[in-house]
Design a protein that fits this description.
By secondary structure, the chain is mainly α. Helix content is 71%, strand content 0%. The radius of gyration is 17 Å and the shape is globular.
Length: 177
């Protein structure tokens, strides 16, 4: 069962750590943004450091996105991205886009993304240009994530998951071959 308080905390923490330097982020600020108590954050995550590590960790995203055979990987990744967002109220990948600025913590988020998501795709691929193809796959997945995050009521955010899979997955699957 989805815990709405935990989801709100993660959403607020992802936003805070992506937009502010680590030192400027406080549990009280995250709590206020999430409309929960700071004590609830401590209950769920233990500390600011542990919460940051959870925000910077993409291993669950990679595991979910890659949980299919190569022949079905494009469709699976798109379906997983869309349904996870809708079922959990959180996006698997888009937080890395907001970590594009300077600062050690933002660099750590980007590094985890590269190591845990892009590298995981590259490790699955065979043939030429695996690193380039992996980067293009994750770029396409990030683009879809961003479209759904930006246009919350737009076509990409409201279309049936299978319609999105049918239209979007072939381009990703072509890079997997």
């Amino acid at each position: 069962m989805i815990d709405p308080g935990r989801t709100a905390i993660l959403r607020a923490a992802r936003r805070a750590f992506a937009l502010q330097p680590y030192a400027a982020v406080t549990l009280r600020g995250i709590a206020a943004d999430a409309n929960v108590s700071a004590a609830l954050i401590v209950k769920h995550f233990g500390s600011k450091e542990a919460l940051f590590e959870r925000v910077a960790d993409f291993s669950e995203a990679a595991e979910l996105l890659l949980a299919a055979p190569d022949a079905e990987l494009g469709a699976h990744a798109v379906r997983t991205l869309v349904t996870y967002r809708r079922d959990n109220g959180l996006d698997l990948l888009v937080r890395v886009i907001f970590a594009a600025g300077g600062g050690d913590e933002r660099a750590l988020i980007r590094e985890h993304f590269r190591d845990q998501v892009t590298r995981a795709f590259a490790n699955r691929l065979t043939g030429p240009d695996v690193d380039l193809r992996a980067e293009l796959i994750t770029a396409q997945l990030l683009g879809l994530s961003a479209a759904m995050a930006i246009e919350k009521t737009g076509s990409a955010a409201t279309a049936e998951a299978e319609q999105i899979v049918d239209l979007y997955a072939p381009a990703i699957q072509a890079l997997i071959h």
